[in-house]
Amino acid sequence: MKTKQAPLPHLRQAFLEWYHATTLGQILQTIEASFLQGSLNPTYNQKILQVDQLGCENLYIHEPFIQNFFLVGREQSPGPYVRHIIRANPEALPVASETIDILILPHVIDFEFNRHQILHEVERVLKPNGRLFILSLNPWSVRGIIQYLPRRSSFWRPNFISSYRLLEWLSLLKFDAEFSAAFSIASSKVIQKPDSVFSKSRANLSFAFGIKAIKRTYTLIPIQPKWISTPGLVPGHMFETSE
């Protein structure tokens, strides 16, 4: 008899418990927060939206920007640091279109059913040239490769999304996206923008990765047809005779 699979939001809760309670989870938490802290760089008038709580927001959202930081998700627990909490479905964000400057998806795509709809919502609420930051678990990590062993982590899924597929999805939504960092819990390091063969191989086997993307808008410029004028045929002058 097959056992009933836990709903994906419950798997994310299991991930967060591992994230905060275990040594490896805390290593990942620290290096991911370091990546966000060095990458967000908001200005004072920019609105920051994060979908689903991570529990370490104080490590990458500085005090002057708390007033413009909004947290939205199904089950958010109020804390002393986060002041704006919205309980809502990530697939239908209660946010006006093109009003958000920076949006953070921290391990949301990993544990949601309708990933495409969430990304469509992200594209909708971001302003033109708004920035998107995604943290995601890597299905090709060593832990991912041995996922079918009996002692795998309770939150690990066989269908996590690879960075390559995620970049393809973002491209279809007209984002300029890049694989920005890989997070190695074995070495406690962030592999920034891997470009060499060695760094790429390490990144491909890292436990998690980070993607940066910018929402682009393309305006179609109408091209006016340029007609080539031809000499008119004037009656009575079609043939000329010489005297």
UniProtKB/TrEMBL annotation:
Sorted UniProt keywords: Methyltransferase, Transferase
Record flagged with keyword Transferase: yes
Domain Methyltransferase type: residue ranges: 83-134
Gene Ontology biological-process entries: methylation
Gene Ontology molecular-function annotations: S-adenosylmethionine-dependent methyltransferase activity
Transmembrane segments: none
Protein name: Methyltransferase type 11
Species of provenance: Methylocaldum marinum
